[in-house]
Amino acid sequence: MLVRNCSGGIVFHDDSVLLLYNEKSEWCFPKGVIRSVEKPEDVALERVSTEAGIHAVILSPAGRTNYEFYSIARQRPVCNKIVWYVMKALDTDVVPNSSQNFSSGAFYSIKEALDMVTYSQDKSLLMLAYQRYKELV
What we know:
With 137 residues, this protein is of the alpha+beta class.
């Protein structure tokens, strides 16, 4: 199994959170693979900027998740181990990056986002991150 270390951001603005819609018809948070010389924090901020056009600051760690799937392109199983950060948006004009296979994205109310997010572990992550965000701002 190919194991990839990744990082991403749960980005809040007031009482809303950033979600992106990808080519797999999934509502998700921005994230990306950490290369050997990169810091997880830097990758998370860069992915938020690249995938959604949003500038943000990290407030605290949010937790970790693991995703396992079979990659057709790689012809083998993959496990993404993701470290997440609670972030505060510095702007709110979301521009989904179509070259990164995102067709839609915006800030959604927490209630809407909980209904939209594709994976149950992301719903749990969102609730924990939102509680942390409210404590910090």
